[in-house]
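Entry for 5-amino-5-deoxy-1-O-phosphono-D-mannitol complex. Fields follow.
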Amino acid sequence: MCGIVGYAGSRNISEVLLQSLKRLEYRGYDSAGIAVVNGSLEVFKEKGDIDSLERKLPPLNGNVGIGHTRWATCGPPSRENAHPFVSQDNNIALVHNGIIENHIQLRRDLEKEGYSFTSETDTEVLVHLISKYYDGDLHKAVRRALRDVRGTYAIAAVEAHSEQIVVARNENPLVLGIGVSENFVASDVTAMLEYTSDVVYLLDGETAIVSPTGVSVYGPDGNVIYRPPSKVDWSVEEARKGGFEHYMLKEIFEQPHAISETLVGYLGEMEELNIIPHSKLDSMKILACGTSYNAGMVGKYIIEELTGIPVQVELASEYRYSKRTNHCPLVVLISQSGETADTLAACKEAKSRGSFTLAITNVVGSSITREADAVLMTHAGPEISVAATKTYTAQLVAMYILAGRLAHTTGHNSEEIRRLKASLRTLPLKVSEVLDRAADFKKASQIFRDARSVFFIGRNRNYPTMLEGALKMKEISYIHAEGYAAGELKHGPLALLDESTPLVAACLPDHTYDKMLTNVSEVAARGSPVLMIVEDGNTDCETIADYVIRLPAVDPLLSPVTLGVALQLLAYYVAKEKGLPIDKPRNLAKSVTVE
Ligand code: M6R
């Protein structure tokens, strides 16, 4: 996955391109480059992040340029494999996000025709292909070249003697920003927010020509399409760090707002939301990856508890290749970015198996919003840090809303629905109370100072929350962390627990509380340092735990939210203590648009 940008206008070209690329660094940061049109093509690329590129750039003139920040997929991170790629005659430069699946065959064919290659990438194949079909009209050449291509892409191309950027999209995001005598191109709106909030989303199969004076969008058949711009209501400040040391911390602290914003549109009319099929619902599936999968797992417990509908949660990457054909009336896809390749493919697969698909996502206009039959938007605002925090919490809120909606349909328990709504209204405040205790989490994070491995355990709806706690810990602190259902400990993992392996246990009030106490005591007896997360007023922890985190009392149904926030803070402080690059953990990228 990578980030692409383009600019056509009279601002300082390198400044706009670099600024926009910096906003997209969450999409990849192993190499970067820009191409500027100035009578000829001036191309600069570097291995490393945007700052490395910026340090090497001379002053540049020009009204049109494109840029790229890369997360390596085809060829390792290197200057040679960095974008933009340039045609042999130095006439065309191209940046690309996605994968050209038939690039090996295309490369062989082009080599036979005399083209030579300087990189291992699929993108270089595409620039030569465009060049092959070029007869003075770049848009025509791009459209012709893409007919030979199998795969996914968002591309932007420029040519040496024109003020036009030609862009195209297939299954990778691309947004056009509309300004006054200037226009923008980017993989997502955060890249252009400081210049414009008027955007046009390009759809699969479409191309566009962007110049300082206008933007023309073309359908797959080549005919012009008129699509009015949409207004993005994210402020520039919302997309920045806002005084916090890291985006992750800022985003953790934005959670009360993210919850309120997500609740606002749905709570009042939860029972009427038009997001589920009309057919009888005797089962459903939730498909997602990573953190979104963990949100789905919490959803399973909530939905089953409130509705009695059996819910199967599957990894999108597994579902898409599974052979089962039994009909499932409702399939819910969760993806904060709405661009995760596996989740998109799972959505397509579910539709082809005849299921009604509901997407839960945080990004308006993202690919999944167009793929699914219905959409439930979370309103967490832009999330820059690679580790998902506020988008996860907003996904949990979406799970409660969906559970309430389904409970209404199945005629289950209107008293429960009333209780759920009342509890949800208090949730932003409860999460603020957790955040007020951040200093406690910082202190408790000492338990991990010398740990190389750590276990997170919980039961019932807090079991998946501990999976998420473990994922957060490993993702940003690089400590090996395992999430386990507490009852599973003695079936294997107990063998790993000793004085050097801390245990984090969620012991919050519900019908499994006593069992949790027993499990924690078993571990403490083996010498593992224990951090217990309990509710205010708990005294059992005093004799068992080495460290205690206390959370404000909430409706037990909502404890995954307050617990989830606590675990995010814990992971954050461990990573901070270790001086790690919290917002951009090694080897990871924010949205994973390749398999
Ligand atoms: O955009 P998505 O929600 O589809 O992303 C899925 C995962 O890649 C993502 O949740 C990943 O696990 C997070 N970086 C974890 O913090």
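NOTE: Residues 414-436 form the longest helix (23 residues).
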